[in-house]
Design brief:
The complex is a heterodimer of chains A (about 325) and B (about 325). In chain A, about 30% of the residues lie in helices and about 25% in strands. With about 325 residues, chain A is an alpha/beta fold. Chain B is α/β, with parallel strands linked by helices and about 325 residues long. In chain B, helix 5 packs parallel to helix 6. Classes of the chains: A alpha/beta (about 325), B alpha/beta (about 325).
Chain lengths: ~325, ~325
């Protein structure tokens, strides 16, 4: 996957929610990009803003209080932020499609699977009406549902969780999107079914040649799927690099702590490493300094004052931590990491 | 009553079954059973952690709740300290519950939002008339500190705490009566990884401190292996394999256990081991397949698997599996 064309570029994205007259930023200054045919995983704990970020790309934020305050979302060089609903509709489901965590809520319970699949094709393709059903069935075959002819007449509740997720994936790839956003696609599924779905996404990604932006909290899934990894904490990107470096040479204290805190099958550990405390809530976010400072094992006094910037420490590896900020004045005797 | 003939077993379960009736038709007649737990036998040694692992719908939670006698078993026997508690009722059951406590999965649903944390934790003590008036508060404060909560948590309400802290409250409540057995049903599945590790460490250290026997139910095999001395793998209401935690991971015998272990995504991009991808989904426990319950999905199925139902048999030292390959 050496194609270096940037498919999606997110620049200084700020997404805020108005609560009681004040704006709180769930996503604050997020920048990263997705190249075509690349699998990028965004990883972080609940409340770190990863879902809000993906909803911002799709313009699916709650209309009454959520809005993008600043920043650009460039898709094939075109900014999506100023587009109106009609213009977005021509992109959503066609060039960018999305699959969600809970496949039951993503499907309409009172419409048949066939109806919902046909709808995507009617809206975005110029297929003749008589060919549409055939295409729906062939899409179901593509995602590994062999009895597509019957499934199209069934309702979502008649299918298992894994089957529903397959249907949602079939709908998402119906128009051969260039980018698939998958928000925790396997979290609601059992491990053996998760393995099926992950393999399916991998196969389809290669077949269709699309890029995948996968949002997950599971580092196992990240290691399995990703080419590149974006680690988010409290609404910010704290580290970004290729998958190998994230797992074998993590630099940000949060990434290190996260990797250390998961129980591993192959190792015998008496006690797990933990990260003390919890993610600060939106309302209690520190205004200046590093947002991880209260939980950081390597925190220094100046971490509370200096707000770290996301900077490259080596080619293709960015970290948001003043430990790696070359411009920071060093205290005496401190060893450069 | 035969008193503790096997004194090192705290809990023995023999051929335990729990069926839920399915009713239908005009007169709501019973038309079938959901076989949530279909014949499991296991025993817990004093002071050990036994992990029960399986996918959703395999009956692991029902098993846990039947063992604590929250549900009435349909068949089989439950012996606690050698005493048959399968069918006890009323005062007897109430008494035995002091020794068997439970930690639930959802820390949001398992705490009464209208009760102060202090009352939540002291309720079991008050219920059983333990802890004298003046000392009650002191004891609760002690418990709260034990589980890593500040003492002023006593006067707060559950909504003021995060998920991990709420789970600590649930653990303090379970510990209040100094039980001998704690059944923890998915205690960390609602928590984030960094918080999950805090709660797991807490459970482990408390288990040592109070010399608890722990039945740890979860779907995440890495978590179960970290916590447990021995592990039982369940599939469709049946126990398919039981062995020491390390043994089951290094040397799984049952094809389902093999697939389950290989399906877990490993947090290591350089080690993408070959996954065994099972086809299809778990069948409905209302209408389980004939013969071995796993045979329709089993990559190693033989013709006789659809006929003969395998029994849980010793394959190695302390390693039992129910598969015709080993019979």
């Amino acid at each position: 996957m050496s194609n270096n064309e940037k498919l999606l570029e997110i620049k200084n994205l700020h997404t805020g929610f108005d609560i009681e007259g004040k704006t709180y930023h769930a996503v604050k200054d997020v920048s990263f990009d997705v190249k075509s045919k690349e699998v990028v995983c965004v990883v972080g704990e609940s409340g770190c803003g990863k879902s809000v970020m993906s909803l911002s790309i799709m313009d699916l934020l709650p209309k009454h209080n959520g809005k993008i305050d600043k920043g650009q979302i460039l898709f094939q060089g075109k900014d999506l932020v100023p587009l109106n609903t009609k213009e977005m509709n021509s992109i959503r489901g066609k060039d960018i499609s999305m699959i969600f965590q809970e496949p039951m809520t993503a499907l309409n319970p009172v419409l048949t699977i066939g109806f919902q699949m046909d709808e995507v094709l009617i809206n975005h393709t110029k297929l003749k009406i008589e060919d549409i059903r055939k295409k729906s069935i062939s899409l179901l075959k593509q995602v590994g549902i062999s009895r597509g002819e019957q499934i199209v007449h069934e309702y979502p509740h008649q299918l298992s969780g894994g089957m529903r997720q397959r249907v949602v994936i079939a709908m998402a790839i119906a128009c051969q999107p260039k980018l698939l956003i998958a928000d925790e696609p396997t979290t609601a599924l059992d491990v053996t079914v998760q393995a099926q779905i992950l393999e399916l996404i991998q196969n389809i990604q290669e077949e269709v040649g699309m890029a995948v932006l996968m949002i997950t909290h599971d580092l196992g899934v990240v290691a399995e799927m990703a080419d590149r990894v974006v680690v988010m904490y409290a609404g910010q990107v704290v580290e970004e690099s290729d998958v190998d470096r994230i797992f074998y040479n993590p630099q940000h204290p949060y990434t290190k702590a996260l990797l250390n805190s998961i129980p591993r099958l192959e190792e015998e550990q008496e006690e797990l490493n933990t990260i003390k405390g919890i993610v600060p809530s939106l309302k209690n976010m520190p205004l200046e300094g590093c947002r991880f400072v209260d939980r950081c094992p390597e925190a220094m006094p100046e971490c509370k004052k200096i707000t770290p910037r996301l900077g490259e420490t080596e080619e293709g590896h960015s970290v948001r931590c003043i430990l790696y900020d070359a411009s920071r004045p060093k205290s005496e005797g401190e060893v450069r990491l | 009553m035969s008193t503790a003939k096997n004194s090192d077993f705290l809990l023995e379960i023999k051929d335990l079954k729990k069926y839920y009736p399915v009713r239908g038709g005009f007169f709501r007649k019973k038309i079938g059973d959901v076989k949530a737990v279909d014949n499991i036998s296991l025993e817990l040694k004093k002071g050990e952690t036994f992990g029960l692992v399986g996918e959703s719908g395999c009956g692991k939670s029902t098993a846990g709740r039947t063992i604590t006698r929250l549900f009435k078993p349909s068949d089989g026997k439950i012996l606690f300290e050698g005493r048959d508690i399968t069918n006890i009722r009323g005062r007897e059951l109430r008494n035995i519950r002091q020794d068997i406590q439970m930690v639930f999965q959802d820390p949001y649903a398992s705490l009464n939002p209208k009760m102060m944390v202090g009352s939540i934790v002291s309720e079991p003590l008050v219920n059983y008339g333990r802890g004298s008036e003046g000392k009650l508060k002191e004891e609760v404060m002690n418990l709260l500190t034990k589980v890593g909560l500040p003492e002023d948590a006593y006067y707060k309400y559950p909504h003021e705490f995060s998920g991990g802290q709420r789970q600590r409250i649930g653990i303090a409540r379970a510990l209040a009566l100094k039980p001998k057995l704690i059944v923890a049903d998915e205690p960390v599945s609602a928590l984030d990884v960094s918080v999950q590790s805090q709660v797991l460490n807490l459970l482990k250290s408390l288990q040592k401190e109070f010399d608890l026997t722990l039945l740890f139910i979860a779907h995440d095999l890495s978590v179960v292996k970290h916590m447990s001395d021995r592990i039982g793998v369940m599939y469709l209401g049946n126990l398919v394999e039981v062995a020491d935690a390390d043994e089951i991971y290094r040397n799984p015998k049952h094809p389902y256990t093999k697939a389950l272990i290989s399906a877990i995504p490993q947090p290591d991009p350089r080690n993408k081991s070959k996954r065994i991808i099972l086809s299809g989904d778990v069948p409905s426990p209302q209408n389980p397949p004939k013969g071995c319950p796993f045979h329709p999905r089993c990559p190693e199925a033989m013709p006789e698997c659809s006929e003969k139902r395998p029994l849980l048999k010793e394959v190695n030292n302390n390693h039992r599996a129910s598969c015709l390959l080993y019979e």
